[in-house]
Amino acid sequence: MCGIVGYIGNRQATEVLIEGLSKLEYRGYDSAGCAVNSGDSLSVRKFKGRLSVLADDLKANPLSSNIGIGHTRWATHGAPSDVNSHPHLNMDSTIAVVHNGIIENYMQLKEWLISEGKVFKSETDTEVVAHLVDYYYEGDLLDAVYKAMAKLRGAYALGVISKDNPDELVAVRNESPLVIGIGEGENFIASDIPALLKYTRNVYFLENGEVVHLTKDSVKIFNQDREEVKREIYNVKWDIEAASKGGFDHFMIKEINEQPNGIKETLNRRLDENGDIKLDDIKLTKAELDNINKVYIVACGTAYYAGLVGKHAIEKFAKIPVETDIASEFRYRDAFVDENTLLIVVSQSGETADTLAALKEAKSKGARILAITNVVGSSVSREADDVFYTWAGPEIAVASTKAYTTQLVSLYMIALDFAIKKGTITKEQYKTMISKLGETSDKVQEIIDNSDDIEKIAEEIKDSKDAFYLGRGLDYCLAMEGALKLKEISYIHAEAFPAGELKHGPIALIEEGTPVISIATQDVLFEKMVSNMKEVKARGAYVIALAKEGNKEVEKAADRVIYIPEVDDVLSSILTVVPLQILSYHVATKRGCDVDKPRNLAKSVTVE
Ligand code: G6P
């Protein structure tokens, strides 16, 4: 987590740093800081709190310089405070470092550096890097960074400047993301592309272990052996509008509204002239597919919940056993994986540390790796054998919405593609499902256009202490995603239960007025869900049902009903999630929460 930026050129560095950091706050926002070279010294400003604290300070007391580094933090080592904020410095304040990631061996390094006479100010792991670079520094910043790197273990993207090298910026990428922005007479580093878009669309992606030396007129990339490597420039296609709020109050509601388009893009880009699915990006042959006897879907957070739906789809259509697992569990549980295993990792950012580690673990055991990700060039996409890009466009709000729906579409497409190749569905079934998948985009639009009642329901439940979500089968997967959305942005305690488990404990939690969001979109399970709603209602629950249009029966068991358009049961998840997202959004805004930047969270969890 954390976001870093760096600039060298002719502009006022602090302006570029603040602009860049404002696009990276989704990565962490408990403190922010910057360091610039002011000629005779490095000037540093860093404060606990949002980026605005730093920006206001710089407005009141500007710093003039054409080179600098900046950081927005999500605390790992040491609480959010001015002193723990980045940049960190050596004792003479001649070397400044910003860091994203975790230095795993920082305790040993710290002890050693203290024995060498270094005095530490902060509790962070990052400060060791500043002292380490200083330890090796003999006038050549690149050389000192290389020597320091040899001692570091862990994940890190670094930006380093030195008072005595006013025309140089050195950056490193190792397991944490970093892109280089290429301008004319100016160059940039950043944790993510949106930070650069105001200035350039030309970027270099770095490989792990690479070090970059930037001046205002040159960018040199070196590998671990200090050999210069040539890299192709990647031209970012999406424009700055895609990474701004575009008239909406929050990124989250903007991204909810972008779902119809994301669904269309993800699907249509992979349909050939006959309307068949054409997965150019997946190179698995029919023979290879026939050898796959086990699929794992591994992910974290919302992506994990998408994976649960993916299990239903792949098992139903392609008839291959699927296990969906949380990446942080999978990586340590010695799961049975061999050459006949397909590991599907799902990750919006493509940078989630646990997902990446799970991928590597399975790869080392011979599994074939298929990545579903939203970020071109991300770590996950580079490690995988096959990559399926979701075309959601940049997702900025911490709570994931459009990434989830496009992940669902991707998983359905993969399931159908596998199924037709393996002959587990007929051509007719295949065609029908593709056409129904194509209709979901308009249906999602319909839900968004008619969501006023959802806002009214949000008003009714906004002061609740707890909320429960019930569902069966696919609807249980959606209940989990719905509960996650509510808790992460509104801070209401929200939990999901498989409705059949109610009587085995959860029903004891129901009190007068407790909202119970009951999802009943599956035809075969509908009656059972209605019974469960009646059971909780009889015990005082305030039942909010989610059902398909026409299923009026549900009104007898619920206090409020949200209808979704008619849809095939197996695809209902793409629709069902939308009212759940909208409900959470309104509850959170009515409670005055910062929906785009919920407390304690970050969008991209690049630490374990
Ligand atoms: C964080 C985010 C979630 C996201 C999860 C996995 O927890 O707040 O929105 O679902 O990470 O992220 P990924 O980028 O791997 O999908």
UniProtKB/TrEMBL annotation:
<dbReference type="GO" id="GO:0004360">
    <property type="term" value="F:glutamine-fructose-6-phosphate transaminase (isomerizing) activity"/>
</dbReference>
<protein>
    <recommendedName>
        <fullName>Glutamine--fructose-6-phosphate aminotransferase [isomerizing]</fullName>
        <ecNumber>2.6.1.16</ecNumber>
    </recommendedName>
</protein>
<keyword id="KW-0808">Transferase</keyword>
<comment type="function">
    <text>Catalyzes the first step in hexosamine metabolism, converting fructose-6P into glucosamine-6P using glutamine as a nitrogen source.</text>
</comment>
<dbReference type="InterPro" id="IPR035490">
    <property type="entry name" value="GlmS/FrlB_SIS"/>
</dbReference>
<dbReference type="Pfam" id="PF01380">
    <property type="entry name" value="SIS"/>
</dbReference>
<keyword id="KW-0963">Cytoplasm</keyword>
<feature type="domain" description="SIS">
    <location>
        <begin position="285"/>
        <end position="424"/>
    </location>
</feature>
<keyword id="KW-0677">Repeat</keyword>
<dbReference type="InterPro" id="IPR005855">
    <property type="entry name" value="GFAT"/>
</dbReference>
<dbReference type="InterPro" id="IPR029055">
    <property type="entry name" value="Ntn_hydrolases_N"/>
</dbReference>
<feature type="domain" description="SIS">
    <location>
        <begin position="457"/>
        <end position="598"/>
    </location>
</feature>
<feature type="active site" description="Nucleophile; for GATase activity">
    <location>
        <position position="2"/>
    </location>
</feature>
<feature type="domain" description="Glutamine amidotransferase type-2">
    <location>
        <begin position="2"/>
        <end position="217"/>
    </location>
</feature>
<keyword id="KW-0315">Glutamine amidotransferase</keyword>
<dbReference type="Pfam" id="PF13522">
    <property type="entry name" value="GATase_6"/>
</dbReference>
<dbReference type="InterPro" id="IPR047084">
    <property type="entry name" value="GFAT_N"/>
</dbReference>
<dbReference type="InterPro" id="IPR035466">
    <property type="entry name" value="GlmS/AgaS_SIS"/>
</dbReference>
<comment type="subunit">
    <text>Homodimer.</text>
</comment>
<feature type="active site" description="For Fru-6P isomerization activity">
    <location>
        <position position="603"/>
    </location>
</feature>
<dbReference type="InterPro" id="IPR017932">
    <property type="entry name" value="GATase_2_dom"/>
</dbReference>
<keyword id="KW-0032">Aminotransferase</keyword>
<dbReference type="InterPro" id="IPR046348">
    <property type="entry name" value="SIS_dom_sf"/>
</dbReference>
<dbReference type="InterPro" id="IPR001347">
    <property type="entry name" value="SIS_dom"/>
</dbReference>
